[in-house]
Amino acid sequence: MSSTLCLLLLLLILSLLTVTISSPGSRSILRAVNSGTAADLRDYAVDLNVTNFDAVLRDTPATYAVVEFFAHWCPACRNYKPHYEKVARLFNGPEAVYPGMILMTRVDCASKINTKLCDNFSVSHYPMLFWGPPSKFVSAGSEPKQEKSDIQVIDNGRTADRLLSWINKKMGSSFGLDDQKFENDHLPSNASDPGQIARAVYDVEEATSTAFEIILEHKMIKSETRASLVKFLQLMVAHHPSRRCRKGSAEVLVNFDDVYPLDAWSDNRHEDQDGKGALGNIQICGRDVPRGYWMFCRGSKNDTRGFSCGLWVLLHSLSVRIEDGESSFAFSTICDFVHNFFICEECRQHFYDMCSRVSSPFNKSRDFALWLWSAHNKVNERLIKEEASLGTGDPKFPKMIWPPRQLCSSCYRSQKNNDIDWDEDAVFNFLTNYYGKTLVSLNKDKGLNGNDGTNAALEDLVPSTNAIVVPLGAALAIAVASCAFGALACYWRSQQKSRKPRRTWS
């Protein structure tokens, strides 16, 4: 009887499976998978919903935001998506041509969790586009009766050309759909505007994340480097200019002994320590809007500035935040970190040679901050000569002795050719303000450096916007297939029980 029931169950499940796969929706899914078209689509616009809407828009470095309200079942919305993505390519993602200017986002009003959010913006048709400063969307999205005068409806953006034309008129710009990365004249000069450093807080986060990824990918945590990394993480937990990075560094420390215990190397298990366990899953500066570009540290060519610039800003920012009693610890920690984890061999060795020439420990944070400033200028002096002879420098951002007169005229007592008589008190005041107060001013304006509970929502902004969502039909097919497998197993077991025992050879 059990065998008959199993067979009946199997036939029923197989018939259901046939109906499911032969349905129009399932056939379209299969066609998409087989043709590969789904994999060829690339999304640049950031998907928002009621859970991350405020956090993402509050924390974006962009000056303006575009929010598209749509419904996934709407044919016009599906046809409009390629147009919207063509414009989003210019402003969003790691290959953004004009990063930090406009955040392109979308909200699916057909999702029930977004019903109230869409009602608050009085969405009357699909697709419907809004334009405004990101912070204005935050308050407007939670208060339906609030005046939305700073938010405008984009009434002429039905094609990529029309949308970009509307944006150009609004911003007085001349962006083009065919513009390519770095082929523009919109790079801000950071030499004469002290306020530009405020945008570097995003670059410091980017550099911190990149450094952590390099360490894990290259399996650089070993018995002899373990303590060096722990000390650097401790320094970042206490003094990193980004609250998100402070929290992420603390999370790494909490999990560090579980992934890299002290006795991990005693039994030759260190070869298996690839960093892809618990630490590999930690975002050291939190989950954020996909960025992958540089703002303050953006060069005019693909292979200039970027990570090295962001790392220098991080080191300077740490140097001006420590107390006197931490100066010796900070010095040894940064020197060891660069020596053990910076991959550029020539740069690493040059920096460590300068560290080795320090004969006595630092007792004042001022002394350490000035030493790091002096070391940075020595690196620049070396690179100025090399880049001039090889033609490898950035034409718009040539290496220079820092700070230039435009930023700190009081730092110069006198200058004769390349011989500068520095006023170190003025230099230290400049470093403290530039890499301290001014660097975090943008975060303070956005409320990201507070210590109360109101900022908790900003620490984990948005999961990956490229997360895979399994369609309902596909999920049903998987479930049915699992049941079918269970029925087959049931049938096989019943057949095995009915068989006579086989003789075995003794």
Automatic annotation (TrEMBL):
It is an enzyme of class 1 (oxidoreductase). GO terms for biological process: protein folding. The chain crosses the membrane at residues 468-492. Residues 39-172 form the Thioredoxin domain. It is found in: Secreted. Gene3D superfamilies: ERV/ALR sulfhydryl oxidase domain (1.20.120.310), Glutaredoxin (3.40.30.10). InterPro entries: ERV/ALR_sulphydryl_oxid_sf, ERV/ALR_sulphydryl_oxidase, Sulfhydryl_oxidase, Thioredoxin-like_sf, Thioredoxin_CS, Thioredoxin_domain. Keywords: Disulfide bond, FAD, Flavoprotein, Glycoprotein, Membrane, Oxidoreductase, Redox-active center, Secreted, Signal, Transmembrane, Transmembrane helix. Residues 1-22 form the signal peptide. PANTHER family: QUIESCIN Q6-RELATED SULFHYDRYL OXIDASE, SULFHYDRYL OXIDASE. This is Sulfhydryl oxidase.
